[in-house]
Amino acid sequence: MRKENRENNGLRPISIIPDYIIHPEGSVLITVGNTKVICNASIEDRVPPFMRGQQKGWITAEYAMLPRATAQRNIRESSKGKVSGRTMEIQRLIGRALRSVVNLDVIGERTVWVDCDVIQADGGTRTASITGAFVAVVLAFGKLLENKVIDKMPVLDYLAATSVGILADGTPILDLDYEEDSQANVDMNIVMTGSGKYVEIQGTGEEATFTPEELQTMLQLANSGIKEIIEVQKSALGPLAARIGELREENS
Amino acid sequence: MRKENRENNGLRPISIIPDYIIHPEGSVLITVGNTKVICNASIEDRVPPFMRGQQKGWITAEYAMLPRATAQRNIRESSKGKVSGRTMEIQRLIGRALRSVVNLDVIGERTVWVDCDVIQADGGTRTASITGAFVAVVLAFGKLLENKVIDKMPVLDYLAATSVGILADGTPILDLDYEEDSQANVDMNIVMTGSGKYVEIQGTGEEATFTPEELQTMLQLANSGIKEIIEVQKSALGPLAARIGELREENS
Amino acid sequence: MRKENRENNGLRPISIIPDYIIHPEGSVLITVGNTKVICNASIEDRVPPFMRGQQKGWITAEYAMLPRATAQRNIRESSKGKVSGRTMEIQRLIGRALRSVVNLDVIGERTVWVDCDVIQADGGTRTASITGAFVAVVLAFGKLLENKVIDKMPVLDYLAATSVGILADGTPILDLDYEEDSQANVDMNIVMTGSGKYVEIQGTGEEATFTPEELQTMLQLANSGIKEIIEVQKSALGPLAARIGELREENS
Amino acid sequence: MRKENRENNGLRPISIIPDYIIHPEGSVLITVGNTKVICNASIEDRVPPFMRGQQKGWITAEYAMLPRATAQRNIRESSKGKVSGRTMEIQRLIGRALRSVVNLDVIGERTVWVDCDVIQADGGTRTASITGAFVAVVLAFGKLLENKVIDKMPVLDYLAATSVGILADGTPILDLDYEEDSQANVDMNIVMTGSGKYVEIQGTGEEATFTPEELQTMLQLANSGIKEIIEVQKSALGPLAARIGELREENS
Amino acid sequence: MRKENRENNGLRPISIIPDYIIHPEGSVLITVGNTKVICNASIEDRVPPFMRGQQKGWITAEYAMLPRATAQRNIRESSKGKVSGRTMEIQRLIGRALRSVVNLDVIGERTVWVDCDVIQADGGTRTASITGAFVAVVLAFGKLLENKVIDKMPVLDYLAATSVGILADGTPILDLDYEEDSQANVDMNIVMTGSGKYVEIQGTGEEATFTPEELQTMLQLANSGIKEIIEVQKSALGPLAARIGELREENS
Amino acid sequence: MRKENRENNGLRPISIIPDYIIHPEGSVLITVGNTKVICNASIEDRVPPFMRGQQKGWITAEYAMLPRATAQRNIRESSKGKVSGRTMEIQRLIGRALRSVVNLDVIGERTVWVDCDVIQADGGTRTASITGAFVAVVLAFGKLLENKVIDKMPVLDYLAATSVGILADGTPILDLDYEEDSQANVDMNIVMTGSGKYVEIQGTGEEATFTPEELQTMLQLANSGIKEIIEVQKSALGPLAARIGELREENS
After folding, report:
1. What is the pTM of this model?
2. ipTM given for this complex
3. How is F44-63 classified by DSSP, letter by letter?
4. Is B110 annotated in some ligand binding site?
5. pLDDT beneath 70, residues of chain A
6. Which of residues 86-105 of F touch E (CB under 8 A)?
7. Contact E58, E50 (CB under 8 A)
């Protein structure tokens, strides 16, 4: 059995506290089991050099862990003087995923900086970051709407992420904690929209392989998990929840 | 008048939540007004190379801010690939201060890593870090006592810190928030022990100077403030509070 | 129509020249259309620190492009003083993929260093790297067999990779060149074994999303493409081709 | 007794050679006992980005040691690729101290770069740097006066620094050499102006603490020492000495 | 005897394949014995900051080795995060040599980036790089002539390089391979023009010295070798060969 | 005419002050015209990893300039976080030159660290560094002889360096100052031994070329200059001068 009698297709308890830090335009603390991530979204009134003059915005993400977010203390990346490959990979993933559901033309030449800082880790930090960052970004756009900087919510659809995997005994499971992740033969991160489309699929058989049938089972587990997670996002967003997709509807 | 009708010799509300993060040996969240710092203390069973073979321990500190701990987003030091002068200065200060009240011979060849991560900043982050880190370190030693790795609390006295300053109009004030700090002519950080001895005095007249009389007034303000702060540390520590100084008493 | 009348499910011409560079234990030049990658495999008689004492080997990969491999000159990563996120992501992918089909226990405490250096790029450099690196690694193990350092080929199965994608008009295509890749809504890299199992699936809808049906179509395209590629690997390997999987058969 | 029969309240022999290096606008070699520092002040006709458009100047300092300035050879910071925390702390201190006695509005949008390079070290290198840098900066402003770039000396008051400390046996001493510094329980650096005001007070009880009474004793020792040092600065400055403070007098 | 019965004054077989990589304006693969270098020349329509506004161009070179170009695998400089002293020295040499035979005024504010990437090394990589880079640069200028960006070939004379040395037994030899280079007492690289003038002479007696007579012998060997090499450059250049020096003749 | 009526074949005034800094085993201040370099030699009782177990020593050199050694302030290499190509080239040159006249077998597994720090520059800093470093190294070996760590002076011959060049008007000159160096068409650094053998010849025609005849003229100028410089080294060395070459004589 999984810890705390969790079903193989069950998520860990999730909560999303909005407006967690006072300074950023959008901020949440997301908790998924024992994984806790502060997601802050900051709006900057300019875009990076490669985007200038295109009349559209950009979303970029940074991800980090506090040194004792993990059971063993990690050396701080600022002390090492460089960011690890794993960190860069996660940062690129978060940024790409968020950009896929935002109409960047609508926000003008602005950059949304998303900072995901893991203060406590127990597996699934990258998927929790995406799920939490989505809410932080919507809150930040809410601030722009409030200040009449923009007049439509530029977010086209919900976006959430979770992990699925296959244990050494062949059991497929949803939302792996750190211990499960260490033991799994296959580990897959899925990012999906509210309308059930894929944004990212990253499946890895580390020193192992997986069959086409196992792939299908994992995709189904992820599908049902992500629907549940989006409900938690909706209640964290309150009245702003209703404005997701308003631009899409208008265009259709 | 100061914000929220604070007296010139008044502290902002302080709270210290013990056992904040699950993985570290000692962990607190300290809140001083709007300043919030996670202080984690980790015990490693070896010392840095320059200390080996001396049969004594070491305490070292790292300090960082989340990018949006501040009103303007700061570039992450891991992205810049180097740690700023300000960060290094604060790290050295925290480490030195903690070492002054710990009997390093008693803890054996172990390193205490103290991580102070500012998640929200509003002035006084270095003094809040020292005050919180002290509690995290005592909690970590409590874990060693519990596991019978050591048999006496190696902490000789309480340790806390605060800031004092002189505003442009000459008013001396205690515990400056960010706005006050920006306007002050003189800024002084004082670290003291429970028995009223100095550990560090750092007084700076940035583009200004201060008289010997002003120095004395600031020292008195700090003195009374630090006494109050130590009471908050005591209640956060619970039963462990009684063990501070047991080694010193024994030796006397 | 695609360039040179290629079908949507057609691969570009592939060639793999074995023993391309004289110094490495295994070396190939792989050409996929206009993409050319030198893949060298070096055997080192020790493993990285985190693997020591485990009586097993390790495979690690590095990937780079010559500055003028591309239409625009890129700044050399050694001049920038750091490796980009994209490079790290690809390096981690190549290493993970190769480790999934090698029995690391059999090679003893040795590291296989795989260097994939793109001398000319036209899309699909990471999948060409995996396909070529697989052959270089088998050649290097062939050298160990020849010198009687090991007595069984430690490679359990073939391994090859290709890309699939969906153009803006919804057409699914196999093996994208650079121009197609720039225009595709969805880009997916698939790494598979000779027996048709997945090793890695990385599907990304950059500023776009894709449906479950589109995913299935892409998986089928990849499947047929990879079978063809493995035939090219076999002829490049010559007599060594027969020894792939000998360890697996024995164990079954 | 202290080396060479020095009294507890006695300074080591000090000399300041003006115009030591030919290229800089201001240059001195300061010798304090066996400590020797080349202090160069360079005038640049622009300010750093964060100061632009404010119609005022800036003073910034860099500090370094030759590798064999010390008894053991130190690794060159350029070889390590980064500047140590200690170096940064000293650089920030020197810059802050100099800015406190200069009217930055008067010098226009110019930067004064102060370089303090320790060629031989025997304790007190940071205080010797401040004392010497002050003279180098006045000499550089002298050059600007001579060339009629400015018409008043922008330096408001003298500025000098020294160290005080308390030995393990409780004896308070002035101007510690390296050996004394290594043995002291408390180490304090004081920067003061010609009119007896404090600019910086940095007192540290490394693995020790000090009482309020000890603090007062050290402040008095520093006070008398700094008066003597300022006399040496005056004679090094020659006719320029008379112009220090002319701006202040005018304003009063 | 030297390998493959080479005479002491004999070169190894040389070939230069023009238009080797498709993207760069000029590209060759030069082979000298077992040494193989890809030399690419790229034209950028601007000059580095220190050259701006001078109405003239610039030529800069970068040099690197693939990790397994050598018998032992080298750590990639991008992984080390810095470029070695040897690499920088070679880059500076290649750039300086090429600039000595090009009229930089004629090419306007353009930079020629020369990339020399050694894919297989067996001694003489820096001289092969210069010889090959010269041809790549002429090819790139040929592209500019073709596109009527310039109307005269800006290359004033041929440029080629080789090495000479003295073996431990005193024998002077031309064009050292790696093994000979390791055994030589003196190693000298000579860069000359088509008209027999020197551009660079770099003679080094590593842990040895050489007499004035030995110097003269080596200079003569180099002279005859370089004449032969220039013939190979001419045939690689085809019709463009005739245009080398047209500007010089015109001016005379 | 040259400055201060110097002849074309005349050196600038040279002085070498021995025992300049108190801590290093060997230390000099060398002055050549307005160029001033502190050369320190430190003995370390171990060799770098690549030399271990060979029962012989090593000599390595570092070179740096103070930021205001030059007319324009240079950015400190420690601030830039990396050492320039020019610096590395000079460091390698100094180390190679010194090793050519020292019997490394005699000094045992020791490293001689040579630090050349230019405090004032006016051309010829690399040749002054070699000339001064030679004396510092002999002084350091003198210390080892005195302490009976070694019993023969391991230095086989004198070593000195100077520059020669050809001005734009074709005049060959000896020992170029900064202004002459900037105007010269050809610049050549020569390192020779006391017995008139070459150690290094580095001749560069930056954006120019030079004829075989010009080369011979420059070699002769250097030859006579170096003889004069060695006389200055002899008088700086005092009684130690007599011991140079004692090992060589013995072996012959």
Report:
1. 0.90
2. 0.94
3. ESS--GGGTTSS--EEEEEE
4. no
5. 250-252
6. 86, 88-89, 91-92, 96, 99-101, 104
7. no
